[in-house]
Amino acid sequence: MALRVERPLRVVLAEDSVLLRDGLVGLLERCGHAVVAAVGDAGALITAVGEHAPDVVVTDVRMPPGFQDEGLHAAVRLRGERPTLPVLVLSQYVQRRYAAELLDSGDGTGVGYLLKDRVGQVEEFVQALGEVADGGTVVDPEVVRQLLRRRRDPLERLTPR
Fold first, then answer.
1. Using one digit for the tens of pLDDT, what is the confidence trace for 4-40?
2. Cα–Cα distance, 105 to 33 (Å, whole number)
3. Helix, strand, or coil (residue 138)
4. Tell me, what CATH number does 55's domain have?
5. 2 domain residue, yes or no
6. φ and ψ at residue 139, rounded to 5 degrees
7. Number of domains in the chain
């Protein structure tokens, strides 16, 4: 892979799937970034960010122990403590609530929400990581569609009776 970045980033990565975590570490390092910590749960993510003061955090939404939204809550907590901490969240599914919570965190800059499928498009993923690290906002197009989808009025389903 010949893709190189303009400036190397110090990355803390949190992903519970060992296979995906190791794959992301290899990908980021081949692109010139330094993965200073790669962890498998939200508690370890918070500790690693405190120890390493990374340029950017990449985290999964669902992590142990509950496999609900522990990674997202850790990211929001970290941005509460460090409002300018760039965070790129990866999710298997579109979750409007998760995306909205992340976008409202910290000072509103340096956030990203991508579907894990996007990681397979290496150039887009690496570019998104750089944009988030530089204070930009990156949201997966499918997440945008879901966020902007017009909500239907629940009364429309009622019959005149």
1. 556 899 999 999 999 999 999 999 999 999 999 999 9
2. 25
3. strand
4. 3.40.50.2300
5. no
6. -130, 130
7. 1
**Model confidence pLDDT, tens digit, residues 57-83:** 999 988 888 788 898 889 989 998 999
The answer to whether residue 15 sits within a structural domain is yes
Sign for the CA dihedral angle at 89, 101, 130, 36 comes to negative
Residue 140 lies in a domain: yes
3-state secondary structure of 140: coil
- Contact indicator for 114, 88 with CB cutoff of 8 Å: yes
Cβ-contact 155, 129 below 8 angstroms:
no
Cis-peptide, bond into residue 86, ω within 30° of zero = no
Please report the sign of the dihedral spanned by the C-alpha atoms of residue 94, residue 97, residue 98, residue 99: positive
Residues 23 and 31: their CA atoms lie apart, in Å, by: 12
Residues 6+ apart with CB under 8 A from 18: 40
Q: Is 149 within the bounds of a domain? A: yes
Phi-psi region of 17 (alpha: psi -120 to 50; beta: other; left: phi over 0): beta
